[in-house]
Design goal:
CATH class of the largest domain: Alpha Beta
Bound molecules: S-adenosylmethionine
CATH architecture of the largest domain: 3-Layer(aba) Sandwich
Strand content: 25-35%
Helix content: 25-40%
Shape: elongated
Radius of gyration: 23 Å
Largest sheet: 9 strands, mixed
CATH superfamily of the largest domain: Vaccinia Virus protein VP39
CATH topology of the largest domain: Rossmann fold
Length: 405
């Protein structure tokens, strides 16, 4: 077993749910401090490849040492010396120090200086990349190719213990933005599902390479794109023929970018409340979808707007769930995002849908184990509903995982 610190994305509960789904079941979730999650799990091979498939984690640090009290600059400079002692080229390095309150600039500066001094004294040519002794942002770490050309050393204080280790994987933000912004078709009116969230939804379904997923509200195909990249066969449908064309062209573009992708794609135009047996001949392992979010809205909606849109969207989801029920095998998982409005008084979810799920024949599946919720002291009543939001968004998404009874 190996200890790691995962630095999580903004929606930490959702990131934890994703890790709960993709990491082995014997993973021990130890502590959460701000956005740093300490866990112990089986050693992760090809950890950068692993991270490339996980949307909710920004950085992974492998823990080499832990101390209650330690001279941070001394430990870090020693780690750097051990790492670089046989190097003949000029090495680059970065240092990050986080105490319980955030970045510890004084310790960072001292660690950078002491490391540089020790390496120089040992005739190891080096430079550090932290500008003004501040934490190196992800873009800089990637630009400097820090993992392959050097190293980032970290000291993170979690639950009053200092954890020291190297960064072993970094979220490839350039790849995500290429998939998001360089594809031929984009449509801000559709709500712009970020590729990272599409990965999270797919991971929550716990599907295996080679299986088939279906998105009945496929829009311009974000989930299908990520599914293909994760080695899945994909089926997509949408009410709008225009969106099906856009999905087609996005998937074609993706295959041009990554010709090794061989899995199958099938698209058809259909109202998701009218799908029939003949539309779904393949064995579908999971339905994964960002469902209809209602008409675009930018400022806080009025209560009558909320009621009107929720009735429209709720009715659609109800009819979709009822219609698809006989077409899928028992225990098929459905990972869905549902319309949720942020108002001045909190979130407004599609509550009526929640009340009908049981009668429709679906169970809600918790997304985080009870043990992890307890260990990490998460402020959650249950994990059957998690909200994905950005502070500037009025239209947010509630994530649910259903299983056909
Ligand atoms: C929020 S978008 C999905 C966006 C998609 N995840 C993406 O990234 O492109 C919802 C989609 O639902 C489709 N839609 C609305 N009503 C529908 C219905 N009754 N059946 C099927 N699709 C429908 C819309 O055309 C739209 O493409």
């Amino acid at each position: 077993m190996t200890k790691y610190i995962f630095q999580l994305g903004r929606n930490t509960h959702i990131s934890i749910a994703e890790l709960n789904a993709v990491l082995p079941k014997n993973t021990n979730f130890i502590h959460l401090q701000n956005d740093f999650l300490l866990l112990e799990t089986e050693n992760i091979n090809n950890i950068q490849e692993f991270l490339n498939r996980v949307g909710g984690t920004i950085k992974i640090i492998e823990i080499a040492q832990e101390h209650q009290n330690a001279p941070i600059p001394k430990v870090i400079s020693q780690l750097a010396y051990d790492k670089f002692k046989d190097r003949e080229d000029k090495v680059r390095f970065a240092v990050t120090v986080h105490n319980l309150n955030g970045t510890d600039e004084k310790q960072m500066k001292n660690s950078l200086m002491e490391t540089k001094k020790l390496l120089k004294k040992s005739n190891i040519s080096c430079r550090f990349i932290n500008n003004n002794f501040k934490t190196a942002p992800i873009a800089l770490l990637l630009g400097e190719n820090i993992i392959n050309k050097g190293a980032e050393f970290n000291a993170i204080n979690i639950n009053r213990n200092w954890y020291f280790g190297e960064t072993v994987a970094i979220q490839d933000i350039n790849e995500y933005s290429k998939r998001d912004f360089e594809r031929p078709e984009r449509d801000p009116k559709l709500g712009m599902l970020p590729p990272k969230l599409a990965q999270i939804l797919i991971n929550l379904a716990e599907v295996k390479t080679g299986q088939t997923i279906y998105d009945p509200f496929c829009g311009i195909g974000t989930i299908l794109m990520e599914g293909l990249l994760m080695g899945l066969n994909v089926i997509g449908s949408d009410l709008s023929a225009d969106n099906i064309k856009k999905t087609e062209s996005n998937l074609k573009w993706l295959k041009e970018q990554a010709p090794q992708l061989q899995n199958s794609i099938r698209l058809f135009q259909k109202d998701a409340t009218q799908t029939q047996k003949k539309d779904l001949q393949e064995k579908i392992s999971a339905i994964i979808s960002e469902t209809f979010l209602g008409p675009p809205i930018s400022k806080y909606p009025t209560y009558s707007q909320i009621e009107q849109n929720q009735a429209l969207v709720g009715g659609l989801i109800y009819n979709f769930l009822k219609n698809i029920y006989p077409l899928i095998p028992q225990q098929t998982k459905l990972v869905l995002t549902l319309l949720t409005y942020r108002t001045e008084n909190g979130f407004h979810k599609l509550n009526k849908i929640h009340q009908t799920l049981n009668t429709l024949g679906y169970n809600k599946i918790p997304m985080i184990s009870k043990e992890a919720i307890q260990n990490l002291k998460l402020n959650l009543k249950d994990s059957e509903s998690l909200i994905y939001e950005r502070p500037d968004q009025v239209v947010c998404r509630e994530i649910i995982v259903l299983e056909k009874k």
